[in-house]
């Protein structure tokens, strides 16, 4: 074995050891994180009273209950009872166990299977305050039985229900009051603590509100749902931010927050501190199960500032509803920002969506019920909007086509001397009155629209479960064939709109082949390779988006043919260029400096030779 072989095997050994070390470290970190999440889940899961342990001769043993539950011993046992608050869009079923919502149904929506859509369902979902028992232990009010629960019909058409958690002292209690207005997706949740300052520890200045939420599968594509399962929040200064459950398992804030929202793809549940109140801090732990129909789970602790007043109140508003832009904007607290209309380096396109796309879309949907037709009209409106840029791009393309024989002659004359070729090419453009960027700038002006559409269609709840042609749901992919296997970087289904979009993109690339630099293999073949590369990405995106891109491509192909065939006169353009060449060329200062720089570089190259 020679020296190079020994070195090669040694390097492979080091890489192998490093891989095992890194992999083991990752596994340990994953196990620790899972243990932490399981610990949090165990801490917050329901803890029913062990009746046998606290009874004697078949009746509750008050001394044992008092020893374990302290002043809240009377609430340790009870009979579960439910009550319902309901309006046109929302149905909330409450339970006296915990005095909290047990189920929340959005009456105007169905899940992907056509079943009633429940935002809250199951024992994992809890709203609970932590209160002290004996032996320095804490109780979750979600495990205790409240009194009350009678529904009251208010004069303004609202409905209210109140639950009271009693103590051994009748002048001390915790009360929850829920009020549901005649319409709308928000319910008022007012917390009253009366006389509890003597029960709580002397230095306690906050009440910990535990909010556990489980997001069940509502849409067809679980992977897409998990990518959109996020926690959004807004602080007291109006700053909005968010994180995705798949990427962040723990977050803590010590500053004041106005609201915290758990967002799904098309729905959200948000706790809003009303009036001038604010949450003094928060901590959120998340968990994304590896399998099953659970999209994600969150364990949120919202800190309520407690001034230890004898009669303390804290007003909260809970939003259970759709991610509908106009609805969320009506709250006037920036809640509409949870809808992804543009982020990252393309954050600016959210203004295109807010000021142009959404108003036009809402206007069209006001008198047209078929969303496929709305997309067609919206596409025509956008193409009309950018028509001047499109026309300028085609004119510039025609001018470059006329100059192509002269450019090819310059290439042949100067060969590999790119410096000299560049200078002469600029002189040619200047004398002919042609802007070499004339075709690029109009295309760049269209980019914000393309990106805005990429954000708008997948997040538009109006398109959810709306069908058009073969697409059963415009907010999800259109599958004409489900494959029994998964193709890497593509998927296990075939989207026809995506195939049509790719085909028309290739036709456009073929029609524009003269605009690319044929001497550069990358520039020559990229217009053909790029649509194929995007095929796998767009295959699982909203069919409304791929339909829009396909339709936009068809319009581009038709416009290109009409403009070049009937509007642009190549002979006239050629004559105009020849006239421009006869005019004395005036140089800008920038052009003079650029040419001087090019001359110096050319002189330096000649001296080196």
Automatic annotation (TrEMBL):
Name recorded for this polypeptide: Membrane protein insertase YidC
Biased composition regions of type Basic and acidic residues, renumbered to the chain: 589-609
Function statement: Required for the insertion and/or proper folding and/or complex formation of integral membrane proteins into the membrane. Involved in integration of membrane proteins that insert both dependently and independently of the Sec translocase complex, as well as at least some lipoproteins. Aids folding of multispanning membrane proteins.
Pfam families in the record: 60KD_IMP, YidC_periplas
Alphabetical UniProt keywords: Cell membrane, Chaperone, Membrane, Protein transport, Transmembrane, Transmembrane helix, Transport
GO CC field: plasma membrane
The keyword Transport is assigned to this record: yes
């Amino acid at each position: 074995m020679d020296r190079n072989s020994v070195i090669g095997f040694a390097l492979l050994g080091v890489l192998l050891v490093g891989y095992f070390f890194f992999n083991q470290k990752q596994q340990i970190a994953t196990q620790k994180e899972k243990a932490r999440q399981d610990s949090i889940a165990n801490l917050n899961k329901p803890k029913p009273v062990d009746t046998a342990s606290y009874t004697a001769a078949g009746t509750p043993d008050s001394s044992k209950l008092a020893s374990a539950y302290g002043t809240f011993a009377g609430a340790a046992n009870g009979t579960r009872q439910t009550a319902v608050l309901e309006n046109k869009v929302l149905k909330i079923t409450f339970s006296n166990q915990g005095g909290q919502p047990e189920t929340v149904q959005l009456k105007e929506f169905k899940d992907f299977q056509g079943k009633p859509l429940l935002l809250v369902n199951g024992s994992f979902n809890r709203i609970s305050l932590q209160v002290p028992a004996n032996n320095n232990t804490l109780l979750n009010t979600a495990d205790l039985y409240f009194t009350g629960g009678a529904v009251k019909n208010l004069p303004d058409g609202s409905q209210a229900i109140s639950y009271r958690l009693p103590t051994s002292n009748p002048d001390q209690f915790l009360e929850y009051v829920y009020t549901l207005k005649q319409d709308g997706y928000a319910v008022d949740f007012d917390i009253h603590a009366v006389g509890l300052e003597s029960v709580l520890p002397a230095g306690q200045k906050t009440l910990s509100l535990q909010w556990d939420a489980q997001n069940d599968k509502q849409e067809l594509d679980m992977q897409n749902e998990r990518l959109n399962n996020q926690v959004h929040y807004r602080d007291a200064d109006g700053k909005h931010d968010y994180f995705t459950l798949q990427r962040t398992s723990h977050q803590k804030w010590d500053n004041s927050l106005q609201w915290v929202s758990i967002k799904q793809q098309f729905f959200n549940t948000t706790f809003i501190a009303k009036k001038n109140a604010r949450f003094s801090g928060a901590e959120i732990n998340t968990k994304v199960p590896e399998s099953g129909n659970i999209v994600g789970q969150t364990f949120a602790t919202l800190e309520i500032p407690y001034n230890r007043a004898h009669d303390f109140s804290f007003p909260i508003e809970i939003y259970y509803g759709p991610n509908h832009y106009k609805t969320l904007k009506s709250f006037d607290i920036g809640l509409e920002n949870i809808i992804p209309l543009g982020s990252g380096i393309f954050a600016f396109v959210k203004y295109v969506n807010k000021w142009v796309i959404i108003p036009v879309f809402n206007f069209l949907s006001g008198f047209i019920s078929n969303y496929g037709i709305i997309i067609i009209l919206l596409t025509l409106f956008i193409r009309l909007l950018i028509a001047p840029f499109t026309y300028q791009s085609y004119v510039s393309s025609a001018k470059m086509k006329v100059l192509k024989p002269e450019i090819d002659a310059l290439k042949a004359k100067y060969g590999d001397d790119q410096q000299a070729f560049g200078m002469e090419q600029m002189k040619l453009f200047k004398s002919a009155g042609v802007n070499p960027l004339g075709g690029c700038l109009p295309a760049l002006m269209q980019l914000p629209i393309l990106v805005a559409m990429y954000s708008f269609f997948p997040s538009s709840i109006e398109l959810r479960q709306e069908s058009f042609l073969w697409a059963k749901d415009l907010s999800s992919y259109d599958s004409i064939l489900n494959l029994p296997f998964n193709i890497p970087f593509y998927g296990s289904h075939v989207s026809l709109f995506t195939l049509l979009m790719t085909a028309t993109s290739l036709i456009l690339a073929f029609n524009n082949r003269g605009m690319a630099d044929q001497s550069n293999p990358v520039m020559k073949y990229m217009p053909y390779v790029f649509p194929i590369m995007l095929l796998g990405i767009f295959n699982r995106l909203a069919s409304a988006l791929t339909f829009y891109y396909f339709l936009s491509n068809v319009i581009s192909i038709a416009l290109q043919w009409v403009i070049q065939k009937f509007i642009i006169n190549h002979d006239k353009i050629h004559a105009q260029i020849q006239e421009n060449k006869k005019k004395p060329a005036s140089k800008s200062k920038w052009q003079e400096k650029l040419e001087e720089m090019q001359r110096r570089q050319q002189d330096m190259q000649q001296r080196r030779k």
